[in-house]
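Lab meeting prep.
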Amino acid sequence: MSRWHAGLARGASGWLLTDLGSTNGTRLNGWQVRDTVPVRCGDRVSFGAVTFELRDRALGLPVG
């Protein structure tokens, strides 16, 4: 994973994921991210061999 691998930003309609030109790429639910894509509750974001599942911090539930 690179130092500036991907970006996650809050947009008007929810969270947006962008790969920042990383060498090994960013994946959303197993698919390579090529453009900015929306992410939501329960999505899995992978950077190399590391995978995160998006969840709501307050409730412990996936982010919606």
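Slide two material, second protein:
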Amino acid sequence: MSLLAGRGLAKTYGGVTVLRDVDFAVRREEVHALLGENGAGKSTLIKILTGAVVPDRGEMRLDGNRLPFGRALELRQAGIAVVYQEFTLIPDLSAAENVFLGREQGRLWLDRRAMRQTSARLFAELGVDIDVDVPVRALSVAQQQMVEIARALACDARVVIFDEPTASLPTTDVEHLLAVIRRLRDRGLGVVYTSHRLEEVLSLADTITVLRDGRLVTSRPVAGVTRAEVIRWMVGRDISEEFPSRGGASIGQVVFEARKLVMAPRVKHVSFALRRGEILAMAGLVGAGRTATALGVVGALRPLQRIEGQLLLDGTPVWFRSPADALNAGVAYVTEDRKRRGIFPELSARANITAARLPRLTRLGWLSPRRERTHAERAAQECRVRAASLEQSVATLSGGNQQKVLLARYLLDPPRVLILDEPTRGVDVGARAEIYSLIDGLSRKGLAILLISSDLTEVLGMADRIVVMRQGRTAGELARGDATPERIIELATFES
């Protein structure tokens, strides 16, 4: 018998059907993966299950008892909890205060001792060492996630829904989180799990449900299911080669080079050389200094830090005062955090594409709407941006299309060096394949591409060479033919 079941769930927004009579059920002691491209209906289904959205029709039951729609507090009290990708913690409150936020213990006065003791017990059950009195702003991302999970367990959750929980975690923390989820399953809970990382899903889940265009495509046990089958169910077509072949790629002379870069405290000694037409991957654990290196290279850290060492463009020493200065010289950086530091959510897709190159679209100091529209449409087409109109708000686009808008921004006037920081984070498998194809095509046109990624499959599938960083230093370099996950992890974690 199902623990939590939704039957015939449907939802329409403004004439657009986003969920079409979907059945979904999770049993006790089960990890049930909910899969689909961005826009497939996963988020809407999760919001219905947690009371954030009221469906147009259908029903929902917990242990056979009918549940109300749109009553988030009642559903949480009934035992349905959710851990979102974007944390809902209060940074200045302690870990224990966050665990009991909204469910504080005590009557006339807060029973802080009881809350601290219970929080400590929950953290021990999760296998993490967290000081219950420390403000959560001082905790790592992985520790903050454990606080979110402890909050769910503190209200006697029977079903826990995880929405992209590993999107921002390094490999070592991912493994610990998956182990925690398996323990929750073994304790008798039902777990709903969403992720774009298919290898992770296939190793963790007992059952998968795939949605496409708001419809249920399949729901079945994971045993015997292949990655290729899941991709075909999700996108409606075969992606036999998710990564483009790099055979025949023409790699030229060194275009961009860093020699013994030091940017305290994160970057201690980094060197790399990037060639024309090459995809050079920069791998390493979160905190190894990869993003700090990229930001320092394009001038985003000045004047906050003193930078030592050499940076050469075509053999000529350069230092960039700002990312705009770097862009004007032909070096573009695409941020890892598109939501907070990449897109302008209130502006149109068109305005987001042209934001970095407005001066070239003006005449006598006035912006030419016709030129702006023409250039934006051309760049959007090259990057395969899918939107009803470039005039719609960029915030309404899927994560994959937002990422393609960022790429289009810097291809409006193609740079010579393109630094891509986690370019497929939070992007579904279909859009990933398109982005990989785009990156490959750009390199074949002569762009030198530095690809920063925490996804080892992506690194191994895309890179011509791999530079591995560890604790702010260049730990080693691997040719494409010599690289393996084990070798990369060894360089990233162990002293030579």
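Talking points for slide two:
Residues 171-186 form the longest helix (16 residues).
The two ends are 54 Å apart (CA to CA).
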